[in-house]
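We read letters as residues; the integers encode the fold. Take this protein.
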Amino acid sequence: MKKKSCFFKFFERCRYKGCGGADIRGQMSENIPSGQYYKLGVAMQEISGVSKASLIKLKTAIFMFFIVCLIGLCSTSVAGAADTTFRVDSAYGVKTGSTVIIDISVENSHELSGCYFELEYDADIVVATRVIRGELLADCDTFDPDLSNADEGKISILWLNDRADLLSGDGGLFRIYFTVEAKGSTALSVKNLSLFGKGGDTPSIINGYISSSGKSASLEIVTGSYLPGANRNLYYSTSLEASGGIAPYTWLLESGSLPPGLRLSSSGIISGTPTTTGNYSVTIRVTDDDGYVKSKYFTMTVYEAGQSILTIDSKETLPRGRKGASYSFSLKASGGTTPYRWSRVRGSLPPGLRLSSSGVISGTPSSTGSYTFTVRVTDDRYTRQEKEFSLTVTETGHLSADEALFSSFSITRSTMKLNLTPDNMPYTMVVDNDTNWVNLTVVLDDTSDYLRINGTANSSGVSRTVPLVTGINQVTIAVSPDNYLYRNYILTIYRLP
């Protein structure tokens, strides 16, 4: 990026305004050749109506500022203090004709003495009408917002502490007022940022947005707050997920630090090989295609190589309950350091059920319906994991149409293979006399359901050999969501004499 000296930026601003802020554009001689008034010589004296004392004051101020830049108190590049974050806030769902206030703040300011930047936006959507000092700039000497091109979608702001006072705190620098002109969305993009002071060369810029469309109000980060754990020196990868809004999504590390060796891609994938054990916390932001933003706080643990990672093993869909019937289910976890302690952190269990600290959901449900809740497990070293579960309660003595189903039922013997679905049942088939057995394999629609073949428990997807006698052989496939009520599927096999 081409560097631009602070002297040039300051002098370019002062070609139109005196140090006291008086606008002298209307007093310039029309006979001055283009660009000649940049010189510190005779051409500046040809500006009519400007006193000699004012010119001396202007030239002295410019000269002093030039000296300050030379001795290094002013950054000479467009970038500023290392690790400094220059943040523009956002606003969503605003109404046409309303006034929106956007704050611009700084984090890790590293002793700033000033800054200059331009802010660009879509003037068909919003127009900047006013800029005031933020909480950190109450005593600054030079504060010079330029809104002359606001109707064209561009403003600029210059701030200087002429007395060499350095800003060391975090907080608000500026507050900008916008009028919302029409429905739609626009980015608030920082351009040509120069931070003056003792910082480095690469400030982080977080641009803002204003949206009056209201299309993205449903944007959410659905990934749980506790990311899957990792082992030191082993490759790691996990994907963040969002819902709602308008795809595609863009992901950004907003604050905090990922474990050394890991990075977050703009597509939401955290990957790499962690090198240091410990607990890490970060805030991650997702932005949808309409400019809407959501942030979420995450925690992640890096374990020593070979150490077992804390994991909740129970499947998301729990066995169904029956209204008025006793219910009990034990949640399972592995890894980490036992004993475990369980708790519900969000959502609601069905009325009548409770979760014990040992992970047992029990009681007698009193209402039907589907319930979603998030459970947290904490191990003996205070490492945590969370998982969202769903539990459905149906009427007593009744199986709904979507319960106790299988996705496939295959009958095999040598080269013979027959695949059935629930819609085919009951089913009758005829086999030769030399077929004295068949293999049956049932794959359940919900693998947490219970399966019996001819009254004996069987696992989903596991083959079972059934002997055949001459004549009629009846096979009963029984499926249950709760090991209480079963749906029976009948297969009849007739073996020829």
In short: Helices lie at 6-14, 42-45, 52-70.
